[in-house]
Amino acid sequence: MSITAEQAAGLAAKSRSGVTEVEAYGNKLGLWSMWVAFAALALGLPMGLFQAAERSGFFPGIENTAVYFASTSTHGVLLAFVLTTFFAMGWGHHTLAHVLKKKPFFGWTSFWVALTGTVIAAVPLLTGYASVLYTFYPPEMGHPAFYLGATLLVVGSWFWVADMIIGMTQWRKENPGKPVPLVAFMHVMTALLWGWTSMGVASEAVFQLLPMAFGISATIDPGLARTLFSWTLHAIVYFWLMPAYIAMYMIVSKEAGGKLFSDEFARIAFVMLFIFSVPIGFHHLYVDPMQAAGWKLLHMFGTIMVAVPTFLTGFTVLASMEIAGRLRGGKGLFGWIGALDWGNPLVLAGGLSLLMLTAGGWGGVLNAAYTWDVMVHNTQWITGHFHLIFGGTTVIMYLAAAYWLWPRITGNALFSRKLAVTQLWLYFIGMVTLTAPWHVLGLVGQPRRVSSTPYDAFPELVASWSVYEALMIVGGVILVISGFMFIYNLLMTHFNKVPAADTKVEYAVAIHEPMRVPNILNSLSFWNWAMLAYMIVSYGYPILQFAFIGTPGSIRWGT
Amino acid sequence: MATIHIDPLEKRWIWMVGGMVVIFYAVQIYYAAVHNLHPPSNVEVIDSAKLHLSEEFAEDKLGVKQEADGSYTVTMVAARYGFYPQEISVPANTPIKLRIASFDVLHGVHVPFSNMNTMVVPGYVSEVHTQFVKEGDFPMICNEYCGLGHDYMYSKLHVTGAKS
Prior knowledge:
The structure holds two protein chains of two kinds. By secondary structure, chain A is mainly alpha-helical. Chain A has helices spanning 5-12, 21-56, 65-98, 108-126, 144-174, 182-213, 222-233, 235-255, 263-277, 293-305, 307-327, 332-339, 345-368, 370-376, 380-410, 417-443, 459-463, 466-494, 525-544, and strands at residues 219-220, 554-555. Chain A has one domain (16-548): Cytochrome C Oxidase, Chain A (Up-down Bundle). Chain A has a two-stranded antiparallel sheet with strand order 1-2. By secondary structure, chain B is an alpha+beta fold. Chain B folds into two domains: 6-37; 48-160, Cupredoxins -  blue copper proteins (Immunoglobulin-like, Sandwich), CATH 2.60.40. Chain B has one helix spanning 8-33, and strands at residues 63-66, 72-79, 82-84, 87-91, 96-102, 107-110, 117-120, 125-130, 136-142, 154-160. In chain B, strands 1, 2, 3, 5 and 8 form a five-stranded mixed beta sheet that branches. Chain B is elongated, with a radius of gyration of 21 Å. The model of chain B has no long low-confidence stretch (mean pLDDT 93). Classes of the chains: A mainly alpha, B alpha+beta. At the A-B interface, helix 3, helix 7, helix 10, helix 11 and helix 14 of A face helix 1, strand 7, strand 8 and strand 9 of B.
């Protein structure tokens, strides 16, 4: 392998022994991005507990509708936008520096723009001037600063998307014909997905929300706004989930003590996640009046297709873990499971995450069917579902990835492996205790997005919900405790005086490490064109129709 | 052109996943084609600010109407913070068409334990075709955040025994 001038300069300027300048840059940027992410988690978790308690009606002293909706709006923005975006940016930049050996072109620019946006949005959110929940809800309008801040957060993330694409393009030019290292390919696909995904909400903000918030336009078409938001609303979930899948493929397989079952299959799963997760947002509009049934059917078929890469991921990760279990002496059909090292936080998190993915994934397949969706749309079933898949499956892998990355970034040993294992078990138990009754509440008719249930004409129905609400509070308490154990462990690692035994950033390698892969699994241009074509088919007419169906505009309303 | 390595186990798994997807598609197509189950999707616009002046949604036109073929049409307005009229009565096991328009912001309607569920988007008329199979009293709950009084937004639905 040839060494470029930049790498040579980097080698000369080691800040920690064995760490190049580029790697040090990736470490610092990655560390601070991910600290912002986990600060959002630490703030957001207690808000969730407050909401479960406030809504139950068990504690009259804390009941306050205005505070509830301000809290829900902030909880949603912190966990769904801030935690996820900063985690993906941090680990992505870190991978760019460590795996592709590229210094990010924009780097800190993305961090500061996104952080500035977050702070600008936080002020109206926390003071109750933007209680429009995280899906925005025009024609109700919050304070202009909220939309401005949220837009800046997205714009900041676009610098990161550009960084990832530039980094991979440079690497491919310098390494013609070689497969882009799998972990880098996955991060770049995640960034590319976010680029395409965020265009929907960005258009809503730029063409509809900001003009109205600043008084430039007097009316808004909420049908168009909802259609544009749906463009973002499903794929954003995959933007959250893909880093969790990367942790399963690339870290769990290695920590379990085995090899990745297949490199190519993982690439296929990631390009499928990319292409199938964006043009299918209409399953959020199944019961909306402004889109026709045929488009909903088309998007439903696409929605079911996105289960395929998840099935592939489950297969490859489980097969890789089975190899590890058998290498460790596990015998028989299931003996390999017991042979795995469940005291390793990464292995444990991988196993627990896959359990939650299995339950939540089947729930998702149900939700994809509109015949089922009409019975649960906007009920607590939906909130239960996405907390299981996002809060559970996804975030537990963020936590585990942090346990793995922190010693490698800071050079300090993980403060307590035992505490990490206890924390992960508590997180799993808390999440199951929270989400199982939450699903049931939806089936027995409780709507989501309410701060109380004063349906006084139906006392029996309301009384039947109490037991599930009590269980949810128990789950929330466990999750908050687990969350603070995580933050404590991470802080103590950050300031740990004991150096880490292993600081090498080495990800899992496949049994058959490919020397070459087809260009289609190694480049972005084909997938960009495919996405453009699929988006024109699935969103072209449904968006264009608003130009000629003549919807009378809606005036703005406060909350 | 490089080829990719696919394990025989992976091939078998691809067939299984493909088979599952085909089953999911078949179930949906069957219910759409044979049982005529479709999501509410009529793409019909209306001026939300002028509902009180419209033919269909003026205050004295709202409520339950029996059609010549024995089916029922229910016309309702959703407005902060109620559905009007606030109490309606329809027979069980009878085709019902609900037409609902919003006077102001986004709302939604759900009748628990049924597939009566639709968003009510200002500027559009929502139309749902359904039959209520269970007799009894049910809340029609606003299931979309519509402002700080949203919790209190519901009305009553009486599903009565089949008509004589």
